[in-house]
Amino acid sequence: MSLSELQTYPFEYCEVLKANDPDHYFKAVHVYKFNADENRYLVTFEEYQHNLYILHFCLEEHRDNDDKFNVLANIGPAKAKKVIATCVYIGLSIYKRNPLASFVFTASPTIAELNKTDLTETKRLFIYRHFAEFFFNAQDFIHSYSTAQNSYLILNKKYEQQEPEVVLKINDMLKTN
Fold this sequence. Notes:
Elements: E1 11-18, E2 26-36, E3 39-48, E4 52-59, H1 77-97, E5 102-106, H2 111-114, H3 123-135, E6 141-146, E7 151-156, H4 157-162, H5 166-176
Parallel strand pairs: 4-5
Antiparallel strand pairs: 1-2, 2-3, 3-4, 5-7, 6-7
């Protein structure tokens, strides 16, 4: 099955939690949820300055677990692709509302990868890169990733034209985050 044939799960927008300090680089958290058969997922897009949204998702039952982003759900590859595609479609719904939006997908290492000292690319970073390159075209977005930070940046070219130093600003902002 190719990515273009992927189905997604219906999702719901639950709430937005705004930051208390309007001058801070962190602006809000947009919270979504969806059911994937017997599992319920919690998806957040943290909104920052520069129209940047950072994706995090986990099983809702793990939301209070310190390792929530490191735990694998063990749902099999077909369902995992559908879960990731749903998260991407949530991102695309944000892009539809904010045509200057850029995204970061954080590719947290799995529990098994946490103990590796020679880890150059997490399993998730490899997978997210594949999804990002498919769903966010190179005509509208600049793609870059950091194996050191296990993150994938999808930079909106329209915003970059308005703010040519945005990559440096985003990198500085993420280092202080």
